[in-house]
Write a structure and sequence with these properties.
- It is a single chain.
- It is built from 13 helices and 25 strands.
- The model has no long low-confidence stretch (mean pLDDT about 95).
- Strands 1, 2, 8, 9, 10, 11, 19 and 20 form an 8-stranded mixed sheet that branches. The protein has a 7-stranded mixed sheet with strand order 6-5-14-15-16-13-17, covered by helices on one side. It has a 4-stranded mixed sheet with strand order 23-22-24-25, sandwiched between helices.
- It folds into 3 domains: about 1-180 and about 270-375, FAD/NAD(P)-binding domain, CATH 3.50.50; about 185-270, Alpha-Beta Plaits (2-Layer Sandwich); about 410-485, Glutaredoxin (3-Layer(aba) Sandwich).
- It is an alpha+beta fold and about 500 residues long.
- The two termini are about 25 Å apart.
- Bound molecules: flavin-adenine dinucleotide.
- Flavin-adenine dinucleotide binds near residues 44 and 297.
């Protein structure tokens, strides 16, 4: 019997498969499609997400397919700047830049290639899972090989539904969706530049806050450029994505002489969260659990965070080191976090989508606050048995860059770790680490970057989980033991 079956090998399933494989679990990852979905979807991810990709082992290759984003500008119909939202061009607290542009199929290909080296991970493409039977000790997945119609089954201790917006696993869990209120149709138009583009819009993303037709421009990687254009009353949804209808919508920026159409498609941007992310041995992650309008570029990022949060918990439970109730902390922590991002995206979407006089007035009042309104939010995880909001619990750790140029996460591996002031490290502290249910790596804060981080936390020690969120801070071995007791 396998430890975990993952249904869906999109970016979230492929990230989870990599993390579980790295942790030594036996995994089967199913996707009904035989190929990666070829068309562009996500174009942005953040530094925290890059840090998870670092853990998944793909950053050296991924960097060749990314570029650092300088940020976003909001302009009115006359081109007047309403708000400038620049993103730092330096490496930030995650050890990576705060904002990257990329092409989703490139990322998915790298994640899948990395799985080839993960002993213990089987990839089952062209396999459509149509049923999951529940037993006391495991689940049985039933699936069809779409190439020949052959039916087969496989047993696993846990199943994670990374099966996207129309998730089978969500239906089997019986979870309804909480509606956060935004469901708007937009045309997404991806263009490939043919050569020099004299009317170049530059490297910033631009929100064209035009009440007659709100639109977004995104500078993609290489020669890729995207326009997202809101559908207005009277638009013909079935016809608008035809080339002869797309070009007039973008004629003030680009023409068929300058670019080819990669695709044009109408999407309804949803804002929903599943009410239950777990039933027994079945769990949800990614779009199966939540969907956000893309105004903050956070949909996939949220799913990647799910994968990081879930991977170590599944390992802890499957290995018998922690009780299965640890898995209840998954939704408790992730739901409030992702809800905060979705609510901000909905709020931003309402401003961008302002079309009548009152909405435009409201927008201008909000934008008068400047980029404060949009400043990148870094919410803590929701309250769970693991974090009580004391001592920074549930906040994201920094990733110090070490003197030899290496990354802290690579040094400690995908483990718990304790960073301690060198003066606090004695036999009692080491014994408190040995007693921990999840054996931590002990790191003396004897490098400037690590010491600075500990100083910023105002603590003698900090305990970091394998998903790089803080279990908490401590100053004595007794306090450290109390932190371990949260893991049961
Ligand atoms: C226009 C647009 C722009 C976006 N921009 C951004 C952005 O800039 N940044 C960002 O972070 N996010 C963005 N997103 C969101 C992002 O694309 C999604 O959040 C992400 O693809 C979700 O990944 P996933 O792995 O959860 O699901 P999916 O990518 O949907 O993958 C689900 C997989 O499950 C498989 N599957 C489903 N059911 C079964 C079954 N029964 N058996 C076997 N296989 C099954 C499917 O074939 C599919 O491969 C954007 C989305 C859109 C549409």
């Amino acid at each position: 019997m396998l430890d975990v079956a993952i249904i869906g090998l999109g970016p979230v399933g492929a990230t989870l498969a990599n993390l579980l494989g790295k942790l030594g679990l036996s995994v089967a990852a199913f996707d009904r499609a035989t190929e990666i979905f070829p068309l562009p979807r996500a174009v942005h991810f953040d530094g925290e997400t890059m840090r998870v990709f670092q853990e998944a082992g793909i950053t050296p290759q991924l960097l060749d397919y990314c570029h650092v984003s300088p940020g976003m500008k909001f302009v009115d119909p006359n081109g007047k700047l309403l708000v400038d939202w620049p993103r730092p061009m330096e490496v930030g607290s995650q050890g990576w830049h705060p904002s990257y542009r990329f092409h989703q199929p490139d990322l998915e290909r790298l994640l899948r290639e990395r799985l080839h080296d993960r002993r213990g991970v089987q990839v089952k493409l062209g396999c459509d899972v149509y049923a999951v039977d529940e037993h006391d000790t495991h689940l049985t997945l039933r699936y069809e090989d779409v190439c020949n119609g052959r039916l087969a089954s496989l047993d696993a201790r846990y199943v994670v539904g990374c099966d996207g917006a129309r998730s089978l696993v969500r239906r089997l869990i019986g979870s309804e969706l909480e509606d956060l209120g935004l469901h708007e149709k937009w045309l997404v138009f991806d263009a490939i530049l043919k050569g020099p583009w004299p009317r170049s819009l530059g490297d910033f993303s631009i929100q064209f806050c035009n009440p007659r037709r709100p639109a977004t421009y995104v500078r993609g990687v290489g020669n890729r450029r995207r326009w997202e254009i809101m559908l207005m009353p009277g638009d013909n949804v079935a016809e608008i994505s035809r080339p002869e209808n797309i070009w007039p919508l973008v004629e003030s920026w680009i023409s068929p002489d300058e670019a080819d159409i990669e695709r044009g498609a109408v999407y309804t941007f949803h804002s929903v969260i599943a009410q239950n992310w777990r039933k027994g041995r079945m769990l949800l992650a990614g779009d199966a659990a939540h969907q956000t309008p893309p105004f903050l570029g956070q949909g996939m990022c949220a799913g990647v965070r799910d994968a990081a949060n879930l991977a170590w918990k599944l390992q802890a439970v499957v290995s018998g080191r922690c009780a299965s109730s640890l898995l209840d902390t998954y939704q408790a922590e992730r739901h409030p976090h992702v809800a905060e991002y979705i609510r901000l995206a909905v709020r931003l979407g309402r401003l961008i989508q302002a079309t009548d006089g009152a909405q435009v007035q409201e927008r201008d009042q909000q934008f008068a606050q400047g980029p404060e309104l949009l400043r990148s939010i870094t919410p803590a995880l929701g309250a769970s048995a693991l974090n009580d909001a004391q001592g920074g619990a549930g906040t994201l750790s920094w990733q110090p860059l070490l003197r030899d140029g290496s990354y802290m996460d690579d040094k400690v591996g995908m483990n718990f770790y304790v960073v301690a002031q060198p003066g606090l490290i004695d036999d009692e502290l080491k014994a408190a680490c040995t007693a921990a249910v999840m054996k931590p790596v002990l790191v003396p804060a004897n490098e400037p970057a690590i010491a600075d981080w500990l100083d910023a936390l105002g603590a003698g020690m900090v305990v970091v989980r394998p998903d790089r969120y803080l279990l908490g801070t401590a100053n004595t071995p007794q306090e450290l033991r109390r932190l371990w007791s949260r893991l049961g």
